[in-house]
Automatic annotation (TrEMBL):
Record-annotated Sigma-54 factor interaction domain positions: 145-374
PANTHER family the record matches: TRANSCRIPTIONAL REGULATORY PROTEIN (PTHR32071), TRANSCRIPTIONAL REGULATORY PROTEIN GLRR (PTHR32071:SF116)
Source organism: Lacimicrobium alkaliphilum
Protein's name in the database: Response regulator GlrR
PROSITE patterns cross-referenced by the UniProt entry: RESPONSE_REGULATORY, SIGMA54_INTERACT_2, SIGMA54_INTERACT_3, SIGMA54_INTERACT_4
Residues annotated with 4-aspartylphosphate modification: 58
A Pfam entry, by short name: HTH_8
One function term, GO molecular function aspect: ATP binding
Length: 453
């Protein structure tokens, strides 16, 4: 077996000493770490400290049989795969066990290749999250990032290296990959970890409120400013400010942000004095900012200020070996707040999940797990439910940014229709000056002439 399996732990339970020894020898020779028990109660005691990746148990044993051990194990560790050993006369019972969530069964006698192949499939399709791997050499800074793929390991090593340097970071990735999780992990392992981590979704802030939200405002600065508002820069002082979807930041605010970063101070709206700030900036985007620069939608000087080090977070389709881990993680989350008696996904369903294209990345995977659990009527989630969930849209609701853009476009179009393309009149109704109004029209590709009679 491959070197990566040398650390995989298997607990074997059987009341036949000769069979127990034989299985132990075969698996040890293949590079697995083995613990043995000759009854179910002894196995439960071993489970408290051994933490195996796989449980192999005989079906028929004195006292606690294989299915009773399976049920007790499921309560403690729902994600642990179980293989049942059975004699020819008990094959129907073993088949029924697989319907209840047992990974597979082996009929005695079985050959070595059949045993090793089944063990390999069980660990591959139903991996157990390694607590020591999640915290290895790093405390708990990366514990929220569920992964074992080489690509993610390389990225996390790079992130760990730059965490303490305090330079600005730009995370580039598709939507739904977990940019905020990565940014927060970097903050947790940095020297700023005792100070706040403040996430900001730039796509969710209306253009007119950017300066107030990030820099704050004093009382009476504008209509409706009934009290002083501390901006997000000041809220993150001493810590990390995470600017998600930085590519959606309005062009007219970008120069103000650049000045704040250069001078390390912000001036709240309506204030006469600037306020010093000490924040580390981590920004993120799914857009091609270099193309946005060439199109005049993003400032080149701000881009180089933010992109001192770039981290590229891989899409889920490029880290498929993480999918079983993530599925089990999300499944346990759902079951912890649900009364459902689901034990897991069928092997075929897990294969479908691993092979799916995942345009919505980890966020879509989480949605599929939640949807299939909600619709499942038995202990195992079947392939059909997974395929249906993959065909459905991840959500029937648009994102906030898309809904806001749709509203703005329709609102502006209705204004131009009502005023027959009279920009001065339309801008007055909208409460904007002509320059701002023209920028909004350009943003949504609306031409006043098209609305004139």
């Amino acid at each position: 077996m491959a070197a990566e399996q040398e650390k995989k732990r298997v607990l074997v339970v059987d009341d036949d000493p000769s069979l127990l020894k034989l299985i132990g020898m075969r698996l040890t020779g293949a590079g697995y770490q083995i613990q043995s028990a000759d009854n179910g109660k002894q196995a439960l005691g071993i489970l408290e400290s051994f933490k195996p990746h796989l449980l192999i148990s005989d079906l028929r044993m004195q006292g606690m049989d294989g299915m009773a051990l399976f049920a007790a194990t499921r309560e403690r560790n729902p994600g642990l795969p179980v293989i049942i050993l059975t004699a020819h006369g008990t094959i129907p019972d073993a088949i029924e066990a697989t319907k209840k969530g047992v990974f597979s069964y082996l009929t005695k006698p079985f050959d070595s290749q059949q045993l090793l192949s089944t063990v390999d499939d069980a660990i591959r399709l139903h991996p157990v999250v390694e607590e020591d791997q999640q915290h290895k050499d790093s405390g708990s800074w990366r514990s929220a990032i569920i992964s074992r793929s080489n690509k993610m390991e390389e990225l996390l090593q790079q992130a760990r290296q730059v965490a303490d340097s305090d330079v600005s970071l730009l995370i580039h990735s598709q939507s739904g990959t977990g940019k905020e999780l990565l940014a927060n992990a970097i903050h947790q392992v940095s020297e700023r970890s005792e100070a706040p981590f403040v996430p900001v979704n730039c796509a969710a802030i209306p253009e007119t409120l950017f300066e107030s939200e990030l820099f704050g405002h004093v009382k009476g600065a504008f209509t409706g400013a009934n009290r002083e508002h501390v901006g997000l820069f000041q809220s993150a002082n001493g810590g990390t400010l995470f600017l998600d979807e930085i590519g959606d930041m309005p062009l007219n605010f970008q120069v103000k942000l650049l000045r704040a970063l250069q001078e390390r101070e912000v001036r709240p709206v309506g204030a006469t004095q600037s306020v010093p700030i000490d924040v580390r900036i981590i920004s993120a985007t799914h857009r091609d900012l270099e193309q946005a620069i060439s199109e005049g939608n993003f400032r080149e000087d701000l881009y180089y200020r933010l992109n001192v080090v770039e981290l590229r977070l891989p899409p889920l389709a490029d880290r498929r070996d993480d999918i079983p881990l993530l599925v089990n993680h999300f499944l346990n989350q759902v079951l912890s707040r649900s009364k459902k008696k689901v034990t897991g996904f069928s092997d075929e369903a897990m294969e479908v999940l691993i092979a799916a294209p995942w345009p919505g990345n980890v966020r879509q995977l989480q949605n599929v797990v939640e949807q299939t659990v909600a619709l499942c009527n038995g202990p195992l989630i079947p392939t059909e439910l997974v395929q249906k969930a993959l065909r459905d849209k991840p959500s029937s609701l648009p994102t906030f940014a898309r809904a806001r853009d749709e509203f703005e476009r329709r609102y502006l179009a209705d204004l131009l229709k009502a005023t027959e393309g009279n920009v001065t009149q339309a801008a007055r109704i909208a409460g904007r000056n002509r320059t701002e109004f023209y920028k909004l029209l350009d943003k949504h590709h609306l031409t006043p002439d098209a609305f004139r009679e």
